[in-house]
Amino acid sequence: MAEKRPFEGLKVLDFTWGGVGPFQANFLAYYGAMVVRIESALRPDVTRQGGNIAPKSLGKRADDFNDPKKRLEFGPAFAVTHPVKKYGMSLNLNKPEAVEVFKKLAAWADVLVESFTVGTLEKRGLGWDDLHQINPRLIMQRTNGYGHTGSMASQPGYGQTVTSLTGFYTIAGWPDQQPVPISSFYTDHLSPLFGGFALITAIDYQRRTGKGQCIDQSQIETGINFLSPLILDYSANQRELKLKGNKTDYAAPHGAYRCRGENRWVAITVRTDKEWEGFCRALGNPDWTAEDIFGTIEGRVDNSNELDEYVNKWTAVYTPEEVMLMMQAAGVAAGVVATAQDSEADPQLKAYDFFHEIEHPYLGKQKFFHPPAFTLSRAKAELHCPVQLGEHTEYICKDVLGIPPAEYDTMKKEGVFD
Questions:
Q1: Average pLDDT estimate for 124-152
Q2: Would you say residue 52 has pLDDT above 70?
Q3: Which residues have C-beta within 8 Å of that of residue 202, sequence separation ≥ 6?
Q4: pTM of the entire structure?
Q5: 3-class DSSP state for residue 205?
Q6: Following DSSP, what letter does each residue of 265-305 receive, concatenated?
Q7: What element of type H or E holds 22?
Q8: What is the per-residue burial (b if ≥16 Cβ within 10 Å, else e) of 289-299?
Q9: How distant is the alpha carbon of residue 95 from its chain centre?
């Protein structure tokens, strides 16, 4: 008999946008929760709109791709963000009847996750105070760029702007150039970890006490946690980080080094004298490794430019995989600077079963990832084909909420479910 998954029986409303909110609802869906995804074709999720692609051979799907609403199902960004079992519910909250349906859903649910700009729900009578009156057990998790209080609360928060405001866009780059923004909306990937565990804690409290609560997550605060050493340094010493490329004050060699092949690199870090000895052995102890300037960590850091020249000459002879294995065998931290092709073939990721091939009704067979941020010893995470917009609206209305068929049909004609 299969083990019961920890969130089976939990009823969740996913009324989120972009990446952070959906990832947090996904944690619950992976492990058995019934998650209802609320959307509207009138204002589709940004991940449905971005990067829509026509399959190489559309075949019978050609008409679907040319249909404005069905084209939203071709969005790969949405697909990789939602590789879990959810129920699709379409609601046009500009209609008063849709607001009433939302209230019925809130009365039914245990958890609501929402990620819209401050005031979006309040102006429709769906804020925390309103919903808490309807359902005192409800957990309402609110995640946005800057939280629901303070001078910036009313500002829309996107991953790029939040990542910039945390300071991440100022810490990478070369000394003689402008900072180089990191290649991702970084806080979009940090915030779900904080928010997800806060949500699980609230669920535990709800199970023990029967009480709900409102969680107000500011994504900028989440990001700043990861820059606390820099903030502490400035607070104590009035010292700001200077751009150093890949260099650091506590290790040398420290950086990405060119290897054999086109645009192939390996990352190496040598922090201690013991690691330096292992590094030198891996290289065959060439004469330059015995130079006095490289005899201490301070000397290696101070002379890191010259050291890097020697290292680059050595690594250029080998593939990054060869260098990585030689370094690791010598007790030195090293790793391939991976391409997408490397990641797909990575044996460690395969051991985790990181990529899952799922048949998508519009995109065909696709490899999905974004597994949960944690694994459980007695429950396996379930992946599923991404939900279609409004796919289960009729089922949710009639079978879950008990709305009479005639009333449902009337609301459908009036655009309540657009």
A1: 96
A2: no
A3: 139, 141, 212, 213, 215
A4: 0.90
A5: helix
A6: EEEEE--SHHHHHHHHHHHT--GGGGSGGGSSHHHHHHTHH
A7: helix 20-30
A8: beeeebeebee
A9: 32
